[in-house]
Amino acid sequence: MPMNEPIETDTDDARPASGTLRRGWTTGACATAAAKAAFEALITGHFPDPVAIRLPRGMRATFDLAEARLGTDEAFAAVVKDAGDDPDVTHAARICCTVTPGEVGSGVRFAAGEGVGTVTLPGLPVPPGEPAINPKPREMITEALYEVAGDCDAQADILVTVSIPGGAELAAQTANPRLGIVGGLSVLGTTGVVIPYSCASWVHSIHRAVDVARATGLRHVAGATGRTSENSVRQHHALPDRAVIDMGDFAGALLKYTRDHPIDRLTVAGGFGKLSKLADGHMDLHSSRSAVDIGKLVLRLADAGGPESLVAEARRAASAGAVLALAAGAGLEQPLAENVARGAREVCRAALAGAADVDVLVVARDGRVLAHVEP
Prior knowledge:
By secondary structure, the chain is α/β, with parallel strands linked by helices. Helix content is about 35%, strand content about 20%.
């Protein structure tokens, strides 16, 4: 299931330079707390507040209730999500659970309320027609309800309806729509804890996008570093939205997963600077974890036909963009971009180990395709 994170642009995201980053809680952990509180109130008539839950790795966490209502044969509880210092679009969202009695022997069942999506395509961890509540949150909620049932000598035959008010609007900022998750967000989290800027959610989203593409019969998939390159590669290859993956800076994550889950063809598209780093062998293209090697880029300029005077000037350049501008002034923008694209393609081919044919597009900031190198 894709993560509830915003879709990036071609620029590097801003990250705190220093200091201790505060961890937060996943939507799955918040839903577990809300469901447990509501179920206990349904049995006893009283809401625990705060409510304690057990996380998958054995930790326990407590949550304050933002709202609680007890009605006839149903109970409702809400928890406000705190994502810590992670830039998660669901930070401060209200994660709500309504529990109602089910048929004897039915166990714990789930439904999607307002703002929680429904799966419509194969390839995700839950099948089409099911609410977009991932397996681990389902397991956490189920275990919490059985814990309450055991303590209160009751049966956990319960329907849990999870809702996130405003979730449909937030989901438009995520990959959910292109993956066929309609109506809202996904309820996620494998550990219950959000580690700021851990990138795990983005990588998970890339994996699920490949899974959906394979399950729906797509034979050509593209990974783009940001919005501009995404639009360009979609138009260049006439690809459907579902075939274009927002890989961000995580080229290595896409290549490794595609190697293990083969497709016929993979296109990698990105800006000149990011693909220069990929051509140098970097698999994480973020500025905090890799840098353009100006010396190697200058050698590429020489290989592209740059005269010695231009090469000497390029050696003093401060960025990949500055080198590209010098090349453009000498009429060598396309040859230099093609050299970078060839280098990036060779790195991709080695990483894929034959799992897919690969082509590379270098995209300018204005969306022009500067170079396209294919088999």
